């Protein structure tokens, strides 16, 4: 059988062939078989030469406090980002425009992995300005949650970019046991989404909600988003990505986000 172009690289070659239109059902019998691995998803899917850890924070802010919250973050977060004493970087900070309302999203990078995260946490405990920030911030929040993430090896590393842009955070809750398959497909599929520099970063969770994937995209505006996404469907092979990855998803969510003044991703 000649398998689809996006079948996982771990499938064994099969000697027979059928017309591609007549044997699509047959291909689907094999497409999700992945050879057993004796390693963690993290080691198989990340950039092994790097040890970047990411933290994403979701803060649900009292509606009447959003402007004050943004101002507070603008006064404190950039100083941490710029201070080499802390081995961390503020990748981006946004307010949700469409999706959950009155929500702030922050994405941090820790170069050095978990030891860097621990170092930053310990140092911030001694930072009186940050302690005051957390106390004041607590008065403005209704709830908050976070996740620790690793980046997919085949995605771009997020770097500062000029604006103005809007950002879309697409979050996918995968079925347990399907992360390798997702990585197999998207390692090929990402090339379909690079033409307008819309791909910002791709991540998967290590702590928090597990089997969670986040794809971060940048667009000039909502119409640009529509045109770019429609354009992907004109490229041969994109339909296969969608066909084979949709069954891996339990739940998906989309946020359209606006960068705040403090965000390196403008």
TrEMBL record:
GO terms for biological process: mitophagy. Keywords: Autophagy, Mitochondrion, Transit peptide. Residues 167-264 form the NIPSNAP domain. InterPro entries: Dimeric_a/b-barrel, NIPSNAP, NipSnap_domain. Its main location: mitochondrion. GO terms for cellular component: mitochondrial matrix. It is found in: Mitochondrion matrix. It holds the Pfam family NIPSNAP. Coiled coil: none annotated. It comes from the Eukaryota. Belongs to the NipSnap family. Protein involved in mitophagy. Accumulates on the mitochondria surface in response to mitochondrial depolarization and acts as a 'eat me' signal by recruiting proteins involved in selective autophagy. This is Nipsnap homolog 2. It comes from Sander lucioperca.
